[in-house]
TrEMBL record:
The keyword Signal applies. This is PQQ-dependent sugar dehydrogenase. It comes from Hymenobacter monticola. Residues 1-23 form the signal peptide. Residues 41-272, 307-422 form the Pyrroloquinoline quinone-dependent pyranose dehydrogenase beta-propeller domain. It comes from the Bacteria. The keyword Signal applies. Transmembrane segments: none annotated. Keywords: Signal.
Length: 427
């Protein structure tokens, strides 16, 4: 068959085949890992690269089917709280625009819209066929007036496949004490915080100007959820809770500093409508593998909590701050990762005098929509060294997770603003 390409075009095609960088339409087709894998430690066969440096505290991120990356900044940078990054060569990207004057955490692309949250509201932007926002200066306000009192104020978001939006409203308290985080202060009866915080609210994704009264209190008893994702295999919402702090500081006669560093677990919960995970009345002890009555409500470190509260689906080391959750559905990674969960642990601040922990991305295997088997560290050394982990002075802190259209795993860093991309390149 005769080839109708000109000689220059044939040369371009040959170069594309040789180097795997561009098709004839100049679209990037190959991802090249950095020589040092962006400083990360990964399983054999995986590579990593720095996609871009945003210079802002990059919280959650999302990638459109066309490959555009949208990053939510904790605080607006140069008046822009959302950054748009377009692919360039070798799998990298560059910041091409910014919009949204508000800071925050949540961002999620689905069904032709980009959803983003401030600490009080949720907006949506229309995406065109190129995955580009068409109304950057005039988003639709989907939800407004969510409670924000300067503690656990981020509003993480995710959508299901039935047009529902889920929003975390974190508790503005550690353990619902009469005097927050004060030594010996007991818990408020019935915890009034739970009226408007400490759980997940469900709203319609296409209805404007919704408030608490328009939404459904989907789940309660959750101190603070930053990482959450919809598990399509189980058709269920999963969330990662930040466990309570300062058991020794508040009740020094009941808990040693070591116990305070190791308790309670950071927990993964599988939620259904009406679920109650039990905060502030309990915490989960990963050693005893039991729900323990909180000392603010009469516990002594041994008494069990009421069995009516939801059991965690899985548990992880204390105070490691799980800020990102992603169920992997791509085909780039080996089969063992399919439908399993990646969790980004931002890292601890409150384990002293014990060493700090975290600053890694772990993988939790799943089978038939449920955790199956032990978790493992997948991507490590975001902190830069073991010494920086122990001291809590990490160079980078993994926060958000997103899956690219090719199955790459993207990780954001809310310390320095680095965006990472992890690929599998072993055949």
């Amino acid at each position: 068959m005769k080839n109708n390409l000109t000689r220059p075009a044939l040369l371009a095609a040959a170069l594309a085949g040789s180097f795997g960088l561009y098709s004839l339409t100049s679209r990037p087709t190959a991802v090249v890992a950095d020589p040092n894998n962006a400083g990360l430690k990964l399983p054999a066969g995986f590579g990593a690269l720095v996609v871009a440096e945003t210079g802002g505290r990059a919280r959650h991120l999302t990638v459109t089917p066309q490959g555009t990356i949208y990053v939510k900044l904790n605080r607006a940078k140069d008046g822009k709280g959302i950054l748009a990054l377009k692919p360039t060569t070798g799998g990298k990207a560059t910041v091409t625009s910014g919009f949204g004057s508000y800071g925050g955490t949540g961002i999620y692309a689905k069904d032709g819209y980009l959803y983003a949250s401030s600490d009080e509201d949720v907006y949506r932007y229309k995406l065109d066929a190129k995955g580009e926002v068409t109304n950057p200066a005039q988003p639709e306000k989907i939800v407004r007036g969510l409670l924000s009192r300067g503690e656990h104020e981020s509003k993480s978001i995710v959508l299901d496949n039935a047009g529902n939006l889920y929003v975390n409203v974190g508790a503005y308290s550690n353990s619902c004490q009469v005097k927050d985080r004060e030594k010996g202060s007991m818990g408020q009866q019935n915890c009034p915080i739970l009226d408007s915080a400490g759980g997940i609210w469900q709203f319609r994704a296409d209805k404007l100007n919704q408030q608490y009264g328009n939404g459904t209190r989907y789940a309660t008893g959750l101190r603070n959820v930053v990482g959450l994702d919809w598990n399509a295999q189980a058709n269920q919402l999963f969330v990662m809770q930040h466990g309570r702090d300062q058991l020794h500081d508040i009740f020094p006669t009941m808990y040693t500093t070591k116990q305070s560093a190791e308790l309670p677990a950071e927990c993964l919960y599988a939620l259904t409508k009406g679920a109650n995970a039990g905060w502030p009345f309990l915490y989960y002890d990963p050693v005893k593998k039991q729900k323990i009555l909180a000392p603010e409500y009469g516990g002594d470190g041994q008494k069990l909590a009421d069995a009516k509260y939801l059991d965690p689906a899985a548990a992880y080391p204390a105070h490691t701050a799980p800020n990102g959750l992603l169920f992997y559905t791509g085909t780039m990674f080996p089969e063992k990762y399919r439908n399993g969960a990646f969790i980004a642990f931002h890292g601890s601040w409150n384990r002293a005098p014990e060493p700090q922990k975290g600053y890694y991305v772990v993988f939790q295997p799943f089978k038939n929509g449920k955790p199956s088997g032990p978790w493992e560290v997948f991507a490590d050394n975001f902190a830069g060294s073991a010494e920086k982990v122990a001291s809590g002075r990490a160079d980078h802190k993994p926060c958000g997770l997103a899956q690219g259209p090719d199955g790459s795993l993207y990780v954001s860093d809310d310390k320095a603003g680095t965006i990472y991309r992890i690929v599998y390149n072993q055949k």
